[in-house]
Amino acid sequence: MIKRLAFVAGFGIGFVVGSASGRKSYESLRESALNTWNDPKVQSKVSEGTDWVKSEVPVVGEKLAESAQKAAETVGAKASDGAAAVKDKAQEGAATVKDKAAQGSQTAQQKAQEVKDKAQEKSSKDSGAELPEPATTEDEVDMEPAHPAPDAKDMKN
Questions:
Q1: What pLDDT, in 10s, does the model give residues 76-109?
Q2: Cβ distance 36 to 42 under 8 Å?
Q3: Helix orientation angle between 40-126 and 2-37, rounded to the nearest 10 degrees
Q4: pTM higher than 0.90, yes or no?
């Protein structure tokens, strides 16, 4: 607690003493700055600088507008070039896919023809074998059921 009290007292004394001497320095610095600003030579240079800036603003604005226009043209050209490159790549890809599809279709047709030829060969080999005559009467047909019909004892719960 004593340390805090000593700190506050020292701060207060330093503020009072410092502000008195600091105020004098501040006032002299302020008066010197005002005298320099109000000097006719300084004011004439400020006026010249202001007039120059006012005369150069339109020129700078035109240069900025030209630069912006060039940048827009460059971006447009680059975008157009990029779009053309993408279009070319897409056409190349489509042609490749079309070629691959045609090759796949041709291969499938060849395989189908091979299967058809093998089936015809097998059919011609098997045509020499005699098939049995179909049954024409009930006696010749096996009419026995695969499973016997359920009887009364099978029906009980």
A1: 888 888 888 898 998 998 889 989 988 988 998 9
A2: yes
A3: 110
A4: no
Give the Cα separation of 110 and 113 in Å (integer): 5
How does 5-41 read in b/e, with b if 16+ C-beta sit within 10 Å?
A: eeeeeeeeeeeeeeeeeeeeeeeeeeeeeeeeeeeee
CA-CA distances (angstroms) from residue 73 to 78, 115, 154? 9, 63, 95
DSSP result, 53-80: HHHHHHHHHHHHHHHHHHHHHHHHHHHH
DSSP code per residue over 41-52: HHHHHHHHHHHH
Residues sharing a CB contact under 8 Å with residue 141, sequence separation 6 or more, in sequence order: 135
Within 10 Å of residue 104's Cβ, how many Cβ atoms? 10
Q: Residue 50: which region, alpha, beta or left (left: phi > 0; alpha: psi -120 to 50)?
A: alpha
Q: How far is Cα 120 from Cα 113, in angstroms, rounded to an integer? A: 10
Integer angstrom CA distances of residue 71 from 47, 67, 74, 109, 156: 36, 6, 5, 57, 97
